[in-house]
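Contributing new complexes? Match this layout with zinc ion.
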Amino acid sequence: MRTLVHNWTTTRPAPVLPSSGTLRPLGLDEVTLTEGFWADRQRINGEASIPHCDYWETRVGWIDNFRHALDGSVVQHRRGREFSDSDVYKMVEAMAWEVGRTGDPALNARIAELTAVIGAVQEPDGYLNTKFGRPGQGERYSDLAWGHELYCYGHLIQAAVARLRTGHDDELVAIARRAADHVCAEFGPDGRDGVCGHPEIEVALVELARATGERSYLDQAALFVERRGRGTLPDIEFGREYYQDDVPVRDATILRGHAVRALYLSAAAIDVAVETGDDALLEAVRDQYEATLARRTYLTGGMGSHHQDEAFGDDHELPPDRAYCETCAGVASVMVAWRLLLATGDTHWGDVVERTLFNVVATSPAADGRAFFYTNPLHKRVPGETAHPDEVSARALSRLRAPWFEVSCCPTNVARTFASLGAYVATVSDDALQLHQYAPARITTTLGDGRAIGLEVRTGYPYAGDVTVRVTTAPEGEAGLSLRVPAWAVGSATLDGEPVDGEVATIRRAFAEGDEVRLSLPVVPRITTADNRIDAVRGCVAVERGPLVLCAESTDLPGDLHVDAIRLDLASPPTADGSGAIGRGRAVEHASATWPYAAGPRERDADTFELRLVPYHEWANRGPSTMRVWIPTA
Ligand code: FUB
Ligand code: ZN
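Output block (do not edit by hand):
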């Protein structure tokens, strides 16, 4: 199933570097996003979001927790949730990728400063946490279900991997290695028979093993994956499925419980499977994720429909107004799909990455990068309040994007993803390069067989469907270039004017410098319907355009019309308009305000109007509004 294309000694600035796989990822030094949708977001992330996170982590005291842990006052002064250390680490990871991308010396100095603050708290045996282990605090590992100690190490380790892979074998790496050694000693085969209530350490340990060549980290990750599902964590009101401790990973058939936990665990299990050659595990996780996409995923790629436990619902339980779709679950789903793509070479995983990036991850940050959605519902019945720029919000309030949350996992997750986005654009195999995501970019790399190749990508994607790839360095002899054809374009895409057969457009020939190929994708509005079993949207359609899910926002409706008083008239199909679409809308009058049920129809069509639909990721950027993705049809 898999071919070895590189080995332990190969390193590059990328978050995921499997030692084997069908496709090899590229590093941030090999792919530069030059302009357009993703380059803009990456720039705003570096200029605004990362400093914004630093400001808030400082302001809410989560960085100071480390200082208080040193001066003995942490019991009185510690602020934030039990996992707040992880948010500092996740921010440092974002900073590390950003430094890798830009070389920014000031940001590099800030990482060194934070590293000193963090490192001072580490105990001689490698233990590191501001919430446990001191007089007046809970004992180390006394609350594996909720304490998040291992989860925190996971994010520390991922930050260190980012440092190592961007050329900084520094003190943060030493701290993370001491922590990882401590975890192996404490939770190894002869140690505590436990797992963390929040998977994350597993995916981090595999990556640290890949980055350092230290086998024990991989073995520990594999042990954690095998241990889960055997009931070592307590049964809680949400059931052990909340933390995936109900069924062993390889026996599960679908993702369940807390969405971020389930997805981080899946990513880790894929990594373990790839590194240990465990095809049965890889196939089990792939099947679970496929089942989850088929039955428990929103049109946006968002996952999780239960608020109380931030969890997956039952099959087809996907109410748009109650969609939780935590931003972190979107990030985690991208992590899973990307790993499957690398392991299997199946390019359709690029579709999942694309859908989720454009419609969940890109929805979270405000246009200025200084406020974020934590949850991403597909229907908003009441205009949320604008969160005060100076206030910390609860995570799932009826608010619009907020600058910071009491549980603020999402902003730093977006930040680390955007800073490392270049790594998700393309891969290579022995004698070919595969383009998975379309954005203006410069790519300079070597194929698996060592031949140099350079490309320049020009496109107005996602708003325009032409993607031109120019060869800037031609590999000697024949080579392959393949371009993903998104599922919505299969059957209508063309390559240099010729119809493309299937999900990938492939060219194999001897290229010359200056050669150009042009993929054309039909980025026109299209009507999407849902499986009838998703009862909550029966009788509704959505409009998509290219990779973008569109929505109706009250801001664009005539008069005081509410988004719940409109229908879409399919007799006149929506046409492209700016970055969205225009369709024919019909206002609906509700017959009774006192009782919403009756034998006959309870509403009638009234006026028609031009219904403007905008990209979902842009919603609420113009102030409070009501919004819906799924629109009843006339
Ligand atoms: O528990 C740590 C993080 O907080 C989870 O990943 C999020 O879902 C939020 O609950
Ligand atoms: Zn989150």
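Reviewers usually confirm one structural detail per submission. For this one: The chain has a mean pLDDT of 96.
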